[in-house]
Amino acid sequence: MTETLVAFERHLRSERARSEHTIRAYLGDVRSMLDHLDRERGVTNLGDIGLRDLRAWLAALSAGSARSTVARRSAAVRTFLGWATRTGRISTDPSLRLAAPSKSSVLPEVLKQQQAADLLDVAAVASDDEDPMHLRDRAALELLYASGIRVGELTSLDVDDIDLAGGVVRVLGKGGKERTVPFGAPARDAVEAWLRRGRPQVVTGESGPALLLGRRGRRADQRQIRSALHALLRHVPDAPDLSPHGLRHSAATHLLEGGADLREVQELLGHASLATTQIYTHVSVDRLKKSYQQAHPRA
What we know:
The chain is mainly alpha-helical. Helices cover 59% and strands 4% of the residues.
């Protein structure tokens, strides 16, 4: 089984170009399923797994997990068993008729437009002390909000990926798909300040081409950006404590509220399916309903 999982990992990385985060999650989910079937149902061989075994595993999982977790784990297992069938490791795929709960339709929490402006003003004021990390944090948040890119895409950027004159950034997204995303003047100014006055203070021989760096000169990681966002949000009155992904949600919502076309937002965000982008229309409608109920005399 170990050799099979190593081969599956290789498939996810080289053939499907999944991110390291996705690979770790999928492997963990598959191992969890195999361990459960071994422990609870005595199934030790991949070829002995049946639909009833998978349904029993899902039922046990559903008892203590969120619907989104169950949906993700079942998707990982279906991917694994489908691959095992195609590569001849098992004769039939027992997961073909496996029904998993759909993800909940909870709307993502987002900043109001004024809160987003206040957040970036706080970041700008913090960067006035010329601390390179404050300059970096301002550049990171401006770029996240301006472009709507994922935090993993942000921390993977190299200096050459940014075209300040053209106001665009080249992003390598999920599945190894490259896209070009525009950004505005405030983000350009923040990134330029970081490149001129911040990055030179911390760059070392180990920095390589990384755009964003930590204090020791290594490529900045997602945790550092997340911590900076949480710290700055504390200075924005009534703002929810969002993750960087929440800033991406906010950017998408504000684009649609400003009149952007849904397909254009899909392209900017790098969504493979328009259905993924449509959740942001629900956010806008939800806000519209609240405003209507508060303002209309016959609401």
